[in-house]
Each structure stands twice: as C-alpha cells, then as structure tokens.
Automatic annotation (TrEMBL), chains A, B, C, D:
Domain of life: Bacteria
Lineage start: Bacteria, Bacillati, Actinomycetota, Actinomycetes, Streptosporangiales
Domain HTH tetR-type: 18-78
InterPro entries: Homeodomain-like_sf, HTH-type_TetR-like_transc_reg, HTH_TetR, Tet_transcr_reg_TetR-rel_C_sf, TetR_C
PANTHER family the UniProt entry points to: HTH-TYPE TRANSCRIPTIONAL REGULATOR BETI, HTH-TYPE TRANSCRIPTIONAL REGULATOR RUTR
Record's keyword annotation contains DNA-binding: yes
Disordered: annotated span: 1-20
A single GO molecular function term of this UniProt record: DNA-binding transcription factor activity
Protein name: TetR/AcrR family transcriptional regulator
DNA-binding region coordinates: 41-60
Keyword annotations from UniProtKB, A to Z: DNA-binding, Transcription, Transcription regulation
DNA sequence: TTATAAACGAGACGGTACGTCTTGTCTTATG
DNA sequence: CATAAGACAAGACGTACCGTCTCGTTTATAA
C-alpha cells in the first residue's frame, strides 16, 4: 500500500548484482507455490536466499516488482510454437503453449496475484495489460504466414475459455477442450476470409 | 497461513448478531473497492464498523470466510433473467447479468481475491468451484424451456471470454462483444440439436 | 485497576449462595498454587468451578476480595496453640503455627500477592495490616497466662525472621531456626520483666 | 505463563541500544510506583518511553527480566557503608542502607513483585536468592575488619525484622527499631566470640 | 595498486497488523 | 421474571512483517 522510497536499483552490469538477483528469483520461484503469494514475505525470502531483507528492497522496492520479474523472466515463456499457414494448427499449438506456461506453479501464482492486485495497483494493471499484448502480438506473429491478423475481441475469444477453465473452474485443460475452443473460434474468425481456404 | 481456532460462530438467530453481521458486511462492501483486498484489514474494518476486532473474529474466523459471505450474499446475485425458449436471447441475457454482477466493485475484488487464494487455500478453491456450479445450474435452469442442457465445457466456452475480458484484458465488455461470444458459442452448441430451430 | 461497579453481593444467609461460594473458594485454593496468582483468572476459575463468570463477579467484585477470603477463611488459620505461662514454649508454638499456616500453598500465594498489591491498593494494604493485627492479638492472648504483653516492635522482631526466611531467602524454616529466633527474641523482651522468672 | 521465545538481546555495546535501554529503565522507574507492577504494561511503558512495544520485547523478553534490571541497576544499590571493626556500628549502618534501598518506590515494588512471582517463576526465585546472597556477601565484607562472618541464619535474623516491618506491617522503620534489632541480634551472634570485646 | 563507489550483512527501530486472551458490561432467550 | 448463555467493547498479550536507518565489510571498477 505504502509507496516505498525509490532509491536507485543496483547496477545490473555488476556481476555480483546479477548473481544475487538470479539466486533470489530462483528461490522465489521455488517458494511461491509452497507458501503462496501471501506467504512469500521478504523476511522468508531473505532467509531462504541467504540475503538481507535490505538487499531485497534494493532490488525490488515493491513486492509487485518482484512478481513482474518472476512473470517476465518466466522459465520458458519464450517457447512459442513455430509459425505456420494452417490457422487451426497454429491456434491449437499456441493455446497449448499458453496452457504449458500457466501450468508452471510459480507463474500461475504470480499471474493470479498480479491480476487480483490490478484493480488497486496501477502498476499491476499496466503490467497485466502489457503481458496480454505481448502474447497477442506473438500470436499474430505466428499467424503471419497464414495472412491472418487477430483483433482484440478475437484474441480474447480464443484464450478466454482456456484461462477460465484453469483459474475459475479449476479444472484441467484437455486437448479435447482446446480442440473445441479452436473449432468454435474458427467459425466466427474473419467470416469469408482466407481462413476458409484451409477447410 | 496459520489455521485459526474454529470456535463456534455467533448464533445467527440472535437479532443482535444479525445487526452486527449486516452492518459489518455493508461496511466491508464499501471498503473493499477503496482499499483493496490487501488493505481490508480487520483492524480497519473494525474501526470503520465501530466494532471490536474480536467481534469480527467471532463472526468470520478467517478473512476468506468474510469474502465468501461478501460473494454469496452479493447485492443482486439473485437477479437472473427470465427463462425462455430462445437460446440466443437467454444466453445473451445471462451473460449480461454476469457482467452486471462482476461489475459491482466489491464483488469483483472479492472474486479475484478468492481466485488468487484458491491455489493455496482449499476452502477458497472449493468455494470458487461451488460458485461456478451454482451459476452453471442457474443457466441450465433458464434454458430448460428451450430443451437445452449445457455441459461443463460449453459452459466455460460461454463465460470464459467475458471474464477474461474483464479480469485479464481489463477492458469493457460491450454488448457487441457479448453478441460475438454468443454467436460463436451457438455454432458448436449441440450440433444438430433443437438450437437449429431458432436460426 | 478499574473499580468495578459495586452491585450488591449475594445474601450470605442463602444456603445456595453458601454452597456456590464454598465450592468456588475450594477450587480457587486448588488452582492458586497450580497457576499462580496471575493465572487465576475469573475465566479459568469459572470454568473449573462450573459457574458463570457473572456469578464470580457477584460474589467477589474484585479479585482482591477473593484473595482476602482465601486468606481469612484459611483452612487451618484458627489452629492456634494452647495458651501457657512458659513464654518460650508459647512463642515457639506460635511460630510453628505461623510456619504451618504459610506452608499451605494457596495461603502462601495469596499472602504474597496481597502484599505485592498493598503498595497501590489501599484495600490490600488495610487487609494486610488487619491480618497482622489479628495474629498479634492472638499471640498476646496466648501469652496472657504468662502475664506478658508484646509490643508492635517485639511482635515484628519475633515473626520477621521466619517470614523473611520463607519468602525472601526461600529456604526452609527448621525447628533449630525457630529456636534461635525465640532465644534471641527473649533476651530483649521486657528486660527485667516477669520473663526472667522462667529462665 | 507462556515462555516467550528467547531471541538474542540487543548488543549492549551499541550506543543506540544503551540509550534506548537507559531511557526505558528510567521511565519504568518513574512509572512503577505510579501504576503498580500490574499496571506497568508494555503498552503503557512503550508509549511513555516513546518506544515501540517490540523494542521492549527485544530488550526484555519477559517482564520479569525488566524487573530484574530495575532491581540490579537500582539507583543507589552500591552505596554500602564503610567497613569497620565495630560490629554494632557496621550492622546498624548496613540495616540503614537496606532501609534506604527499599525505600525507593520502584525498588520496593519491583522486589515485592518478584517475590510474589518467585513461587511460580523459577527465574524470579533464582534472582531473589541471588540478590539475597549478594547483600549477605556485602555484609560479610563490611564485617571483615571485625573478624566476624555471618551465617545464613544470622543474616536472616538481622534483616528479617526490618523487611517484615516495611513490607508486612507496612510501618516505618525507625532508628530505634533498628537499634532494637541490632541489640537483640548481637546477643546471639557468635556466643563467646570477638563480639563481646565491643560491649 | 590503490582508491572509490557500490553492494551487501547485520541488526535496531517505529509502525501496523495479527490472532488470542481476560475483563466488566449488557443483551437475549429460556425454563 | 430471574438466570444462563454469550455477544460485545476495551485493551493487553506476544509475534510477525514492513520499510527505514545506521553501521561496518566486502567486492568490483577506475584512477
């Protein structure tokens, strides 16, 4: 709640800084699923990472900042599938990569926590939107060979059911479910566009 | 983190208890959007509701319990639309009622918070599932005149995009978006079933 | 610290009142050495005595009042030795009865607690003085056959070492110690008085 | 009742720590006679000393620990009289110094409270015994020039009446009373020893 | 190579909240 | 209608974490 004083963060070029930062993030990723977002206190994290609380504050003045780093430097966030001209195949692969991403416990917790905070923390809200836009752009990138661009609404129509199943229904996202999502999604996608050529 | 001792809650039949309980819930609903879930401390709530912290603990041993009550006794959760035989119309109306419900700030925050907690709090997880099932059942109820029953997957396909737009994209759910969702949704709904009769 | 409102105490003539009162006092006597004066809360006492806290407040508006009763209705406070004309014998017997009295754990704790409170609680101070005077008077009574009256100073010279040994040194009061006290005490007692006639 | 976790106390070498510690002890000494031992809550003390409760717990994990410090670092506890070869004079002076010490209100209350606790708190019991032994040793020290050593029993015979008068009779310890105590005490002290040479 | 700057460890401190306990009063329902 | 059960306000308890602030000590880069 309280806005901490923003001292300058450690110079990232310094190798010592890098070492500390990476060790802490790794420990945080281990800890997060264990204790939950609420339980990931700086006190605990400092102890586990053999670091002073002060050091944590130097690197991440806000706990939200730490969560952002956890999300953005996610372990396999970069593992997007290959682009292709088959829209159905690309969309399916992209959804599966999304499913894989949010199956990493630390990522799950971090995303949910940021989401819950977004209503009252502009930084979190902005980060959330930015993450969404990144993934949206990535999808469009993958679909470039197919000559298709996805609008905001279409994007949400595609990923919405998957995340709802994971976060809200708290059930598994089966391949069959993904297929159903994609099939339905294709029906309204660019009606009368190039998509039809693949059917 | 710590499991608080579960003493028996105040007898709900007692009018004094009811008075206290309702006043606190009302204040909590006002406070939640102001200060966020993290800022809704028992200390603050007690002060604003002119009540002792002890009293809060008596009524809601866990802060999650308070959130459940906030969700379940939501201000207008019962305002479901009318049943009908036109599947498109019913689905659209139901989605709009969902949108209305989640637009109440206190409800928004409460739901998001419970969702974020669900990974590490079995009670929250269970509550979340139960809420989903209730709404699912309600939808099926509305669709009974149409002779249609919605499966779990179909249910998620319907509401998923709407909540994703609200919570993750953090954008407005327009009527057009709802129409798009419903249109897409109808295509795969019970292929060859009674739905076709309305097209 | 807070002076509770003085509602009227239960009529002591009522046999039911007597029963309750005695049961509570008995339980308190058991409890006192177990949990200490600080641990003898009304909540605990009420639970153990199967009585409502209200009832305790009705009988003893102040915890000091309860302690007074514990001291004054001590189990064997009345067991003074026989009067006699041999000053040494009477004094020795009286000291031994004193030793016996404060060896009862509940009595010990109660007396020490009242003593510690006396500096800031006039009631306790007064009660303490009164108890001392009673015992002083009792001693003089025992010594009447010997034709001796003990002054305040002489009284303190007699019992002081014994209680100091018990409470401050926290050591045992042996018969030898009592003999030493009495011997020393006799030397300055009424120099040249009737005491000499017994030597 | 509950044994608080014994974290390590603040490093006494740190000057800031010393400052805090001394300020708190000074305020506690002022407060003790005002509010009594029961009223000397950490909450009150913290407020008066402009310190957080947490700071108090860091320095004195137990309230008993605070009382010990109050007693041991008493304002003028070290002001023993001069040694000498005149036993009567030394004993008298020593008793007067005892009287002076226990007349400091904070010391009075602290000693009485620790005494009352000693029955159920081993730490208090041990501290009490240690304080007694210290004073006993000091007395023997003063009497060294006189070639006299006081046994435990003799020690109690000397100081017992004085403290009994102060704490139990709650009366003043006059010079005359001290003279009476010493006179009586000398009669049985080392019968046939060097003491006689001073008569 | 030595400065010099930065990161870091250690830990005291003021705050705030936690979940619990006891106290004294007051309300409600019941027998 | 008196009495129990127990809700309530008040406030202390001992603990935890937060964010800040010294202090020294190490580590890395620059002179």
């Amino acid at each position: 709640m309280k806005q901490p004083l923003h001292r300058r963060q450690p110079t990232s070029s310094n190798p010592r800084v890098q070492r500390t930062r990476n060790r802490v993030l790794a420990i945080a990723r281990e800890l997060l699923p264990e204790v939950g977002a609420g339980g990931l206190t700086y006190a605990l994290l400092a102890e586990r990472a053999s670091v002073t609380r002060q050091t944590l504050y130097r690197h991440w003045p806000t706990r939200a900042a730490l969560l952002f780093d956890l999300i953005l430097e996610g372990p396999d966030l970069g593992t997007y599938p290959e682009p292709g001209s088959d829209v159905r195949a690309v969309a399916t692969a992209w959804l599966k990569s999304l499913r894989a991403g949010v199956s990493v416990p630390a990522m799950r917790t971090a995303v949910l926590t940021v989401t819950a905070q977004a209503d009252h923390d502009p930084d979190s809200a902005q980060a959330l939107v930015r993450i969404g836009e990144d993934r949206h752009a990535a999808l469009n990138n993958l679909l470039e060979p197919a000559g298709v661009r996805i609008s905001d609404d279409e994007y949400t129509l595609l990923y919405g059911p998957v995340l709802a199943r994971l976060f809200l229904d708290r059930g598994p996202v089966t391949d069959a479910f993904i297929d159903a999502v994609v099939s339905q999604w294709l029906t309204t996608l660019h009606p009368g566009s190039a998509v039809g050529s693949h059917m």
